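Teaching assistant here, posting this on the class forum so everyone can see the example we discussed in section. The complex has two components, and the goal was to see what a joint structure prediction looks like when all of them are supplied at once.
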Amino acid sequence: MTEGDEQTLIINMGPQHPSTHGVLRVVLVLDGEYIVSATPVIGYLHRMHEKMAEIRTCVQYMPNMGRVDYLNPLGWNWAWVGALERLAGIEVPERAEFIRVITGELNRVSSHLVWFGAYILDLGAFTPIMYAFEDREKILDLLQPISGSRLTYSFFRPGGVATDVTDSFLKDTLVFVRYMRDRLPMYRDLVTDNIIFRKRCEGVGVLSLEMCRKYGATGPVIRGSNRPYDIRRAEPYSIYDRFDYEIPVDEKGDAMGRYRVRMAELAESLKIIEQAVNQIPEGDHIVKKAPKPRWKPPKGEVYFAVEGARGKIGVYLISNGDKHPYRVKLRSPGFSNLSLFGELAKGHLLQDAVSILGSLDLVIPEIDR
Amino acid sequence: MVAGTARGRRQMTPAWMEGLNALCKCRHDFGKTGITWGLFLSPDVMVDAARRLFQAGFFLEDISALDSANGFVAVYHLSAYSGPDRLALYVIIPHNDPQIPSISAVYSGALWHEREAMDFFGIKFIGHPDPKPLLLPEDMTGHPLIKEAENRAPLKDLLDPGEIVERDPDFLFFEESNLPTEESKPEGQ
């Protein structure tokens, strides 16, 4: 059966489809219930962030980073300030690094919680998203007083972070870590061990390591295919080498494998947060001579990558010494992860396409940029 | 890191670099730029280079481009799973005929990255199976990241070559002599 055959049916999934999380359109050619070909059509949320970088100054570009990926803005904050700091050779105070790790990992937990709730919702179960959002709400309440926003944080600054954290924030964070740790067994009993859920995920969308490499998949997608590739270990940045944590992998490579990796990462992130809160030193939260909005970076090219909630976030920055960047390229993990969907979905049932899309953890604004 | 004297290390080029036919090989300081090697390639060796690097275990991170006074520069970033290692492959192509062979047959991930570069810069990737706009509307004309001619900076102001290990005698972009830019070239050359 091939495309264009009289037996096939072309259907359009999206752009306004609840399981496409934002506005993704997938053109599906079906033979009965089976997918002959699947073509993602993206660009509905394209805002040309790379062009905006060229008309703003390096420091003014910060708020854009909160809006590229609304579920993991601190990952993008980090990639941008990391690129500027590497370019200009700015040393970040130790306390600021700890604040970055604590807030960055809290943001990873909140991102994974939204993914968890939305994924189960895609598969037809309504209740888990209510639990996940209740827990995520606590993280938003923690981050709101220090960053001033609940969703699109622009909290990091070149040379540190915008505000210092208080002792009560640290205390509340520890309370949250203990609370969240107690919730994870409940998630396991409610969802992970649920037979209906498992039948929708196990053996669906098996992704080989070879295919991950061909498409440049990163993050939980490649770790679900049994490759412990994590930028926090592979290209160490900040102070991640001081903490004790595992890189969860799953050998099966199916949707369930990617699910398990993310659920295990929740526990690992909590471990990192707890250690960071207990070790945080006194000191400055930002360097004394932090770049001002009209600051001119030195000439040069620089690449900085961090491990976001969805994989490798990369910022490639070229500066000609002007206060505006000459060129900025944003490497979003979701872009590469989604590009393999067409090949992965072939031969699956239509209902499995929903399961596969969800297991890739798509955030469309990040893909379209 | 293999033990050895600084001098011994400097002369060493990795095994995968053999046969890539690079015009210029530049060693960077990863701590300062996030790149370990910068290699300038001519467009016609691109597919062969991609195939060799794929066999050597690299994966494609992204393809970007930039607009300089010396032409468009397509930049391919490749990385390895084994550790901090990033290659930047640069392909310099003229503004009036920006063409590069597509590497999408080797790295399927390039399918979308190349379409993005087509959208933003109008670079043509020869042999791309589906050269449709990806992020921009299909009826849009123009390419948003192309700069006005007077705003283009020469390549040597944009890219720091680091330590040039090997260089083709005709590759002069980082030489002190003022290389004529495309615009200042007399007509008919």
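For the discussion questions: The first strand of chain B starts at residue 24 and ends at 27. The interface with chain A takes residues 31-35, 54, 59-62, 64, 66-67, 75, 77, 81-84, 86, 88, 107-109, 111-112, 120, 133-137, 144-145, 153, 157-160 of chain B (CB under 8 Å). Think about how each of these relates to the inputs above.
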